Every structure is written in C-alpha cells, then in structure tokens.
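Q: How would the structure tokens look for this protein?
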Amino acid sequence: MKKEWFFDRFCGSRIAVYAEDGKIVEVGSERESAEHALGNIYKGKVANVVPGMQAAFISCGMEKNCYLPLGEGAAVFSTYDGEARTGGVLSLKEGDEVLVQLVKPARNSKGAKVTCDLSFVGKNLIYLPKTDFLGISRKITDPETRAALLEEAGKLRKSGEGFIVRTAAAEATKRHLKTESEYLRRMYRAVLEQAGSAPVGAVVYREYELPVKVMRDSLGGGVTSIVVGDPELYEKVLRLARMRSDLDEKKVILYRGARTMFAHYGLTEQIYGLVNPRVELENGGYLIIDLTEAMTVIDVNTGKYTGENDLESTVYETNLLAAKEIARQVRLRNIGGIVAVDFIDMAEESHRAGVESALTEALGADRAKCRVLPMSELCVTLFTRKRTSEGIGTLMLKPCPHCTRQGFVYSDRFMTMRIRSAVSEWFAQGYRAVIIDLNRDLMEEILKRRYLSEELEGAWRGKLIYFVPHRTYHEERFEIRGDNAPVLTLPDDAQILY
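A: Here is the predicted structure in token form.
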C-alpha cells in the first residue's frame, strides 16, 4: 500500500493530507495567523464564577471569555486507561489569575473551553504537571508491554504530577522516556517563569504548528513519501525528518510542478468534497451529512443501489458500507460532539447488531475517543466523538450572511483556493495571462488579504492575472479564461492582481 503525506501552505493556511493508495484518509489544517490554537496556555483572569453551573469564565484576551468547568478535574484524561488519585472542585474567585490551556476552540456563539489541568505532549509521553494521574494508550494491547511501560512511567513522575504513555512509547527505550520526561518538565518550568511577568491574556505557551504535530504524532516508518508544495515548508519538514531515526529524509520531496500539488496527485476534488453534504457510497447509495450547532445528523440512503436479492439484504449491505464510510468522514472532517445516524430500516435484529458492530469497529481506528450507543428499534444510532483540532470545514466554510447565519457557505479562503487551482491549470497549459470574472466582494477580500501574493512572487512570477468584478455574481461563482494575445481587451473596472 502506498502511504503518502502531503504538506502545503497557501491563502494564509497550512494543510496536511494523508492518503493511502491515492484515497484521502486524514486532513489537517490551520491558519498561519491563528492566535488561539488548541493546546496553547494563557495567563487568564477570572471574570466571574457561576456556582450553579460549577463553572468560571476566564478572560484570556479572546473576543469571548473562556469557559472553565470547576469540577472536571482529571476527567479530561479519561480517554486513556488509568486512574487519578486526586480530584475535587477548583476553588476560584473573581479577579484570581490562573494558567489555563485551550481544549476546545470557540465556535459560533460559544466561547472557547479551557482547563487548569495543563498537559505537555511529547512523542512518547504526555506530562501532567498538576494532575496525579498515570495512564496509558488503549492501543497498546500487549499486557507485558503495558505493565512495563506503566512501571517505568511511574518511576519517572514526582509527587502530585502524572504521565500518560502514548502509543509510540511501545517502541521507545527507557532512556528515550527519561530524556523526554526531563525535557517536558523543563518546558513547564519555562512556562511558569514566563507567566510570572506576563500580562493577563498573554500566551505563555504555544502548541506546535501543524507540520511539527504531524511529524510528532502521525508519521512512522511505513510512510512511502512526504511531498511538500512550498519551498519554505519543505525546508522545515526536511529538518524534522532528519531528526527521526525511523524516517529516511530521501522520502521528503519538494513538488515543483506547474499545476497545484493537490491537483497533480488527484486530491483536489477529494478535498473539495469534504464540505459537500452528500457523500457517495461504492454501491450507488449515499450519505447526507447535516451539521447543526447542537449535533451532526447523518442520513443513509440506498440511492441507485437495488441489490441482487431481497430488500432486507439490499438495505443491510448499504448500511454496512455506510458504517465504514461514516467513520471515515467524521475523521476526515473532524466532526465532534454528538452524531446521530439514521440508518435505513432493518427488520432483522441480527442485521441491526451487525451494522452497530461494524460502526464501532470502524470508529475504533480513530485516534479521537468515540463512544457508540446501542441502535434503537428505529435504526437510529448515536455516538460521540472528541474533536481533536479544528476541522477542514473551519477553513472552507463560513456562516451564511443571508439566512441569519443559520447555514454555511464557502469561505473566502476556500473560494481563493479554488481560484488558485484553476489559475494554475491555465498557466500549466502555456498561457501567460488569465482573466477571472468573479464576485466584487470576493475580489476585494482577496486583494485586501493578499491571499495570492506568494504565488505571484514564486510560481506565477512574470504571469498576468486580471480580476473583472461583478456585483450580480453569487459569492461562489467565478469564470476563468486564458489569453496569449499581445494586447488584452478588458473592461474599465478590471484590476490586476497586486
């Protein structure tokens, strides 16, 4: 099996894509200017305490105050096997200064969620400086290995602190674990030192950027190649690869083609499909994925599939395919919270149990914690999934301005990504100039944000790009054409890109 990672940066964002035999399995994205990444630690101030909610709201320099549960304690680490020896309710009052770590980003009208149970993530260990907890990844299944690793982690920790043994630790030596534990402790001491003089709202620890996190958490010796579409990002990934004993730096490749990297490798349409509510199944059936503020609802349909035997078998086969694809889609889109799946009605209890088992097994491969509830007689299944980071939808979608922000439309960044890919295709065909007809507001946003400035200084150097704005164009409509004429004929309101 060909296992490939792809890294690129454009439109002010970084994107990482993992594909197996050309089919996307995992996608990560982050904005380069993002100030509020998951894992960041802030020096906050208690704005108010709400005893009835057992919660405090913390001023951390964000638009909205952050939500801090006072009674959560070590429950945040319950996704790992282990047991905390301490707990209780935090005692805070208005005006207290406190270090908090971002565990869930702000979304829609809700502020970000934070915790006082700080954690510092390494490749093999997670260090918990203020939590008396010893845990281990459930993906380490060998009893002897688990016992040995827990014993070693127990020797490394001091009174009142804890460690979580990550999956990668199964291949680590005692020396590796000791060295990493000491490094993570030094990191915590540096945070405390910086927090002493930092103002309220300051970020005193920043989580690693996307390429570093992927290299730390996801890459292993089985990777076939790592393809990078940006020279600056390539140098960073190459340096990280050289630090890995299990990764040959020769596998890191800088893509230099005229087309966009994702288009060249046949991944563009798969990425675009991650914001499409309709997902096709291999047998002609399909899913409809509907995101709401409260939960995600997924509807399973037979579509064109009529089966070869009876109706019950047709439905069962479609539901089995749907269960596997649902697990893949929630991972790709990083859907979190409650997910309700409306499977097609099945009469036989054994079929309902089979589909429930297939969904549970497929979700078991997800690094995020998932919990599946029993299927109801109506063939509706609920499951929960912990969101581990911002999903690709955060980059590609924005609240619709036309329906009181209840729905979503393509974001300006995503539209720029599509335009970028289309422009590259025209230049790859040998054209020296392209003319783009598009929505006026989108044009102004692209010019203001300078989303395509790096392309003009690099791959598009010497090329000409003209925008022709239209007030009547929908925000998601654009048309592009190439032109090699010595003199271009353009309307008076056309604007050259930068």
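The two ends are 44 Å apart (CA to CA).

The first strand starts at residue 3 and ends at 10.

Upvote if useful.
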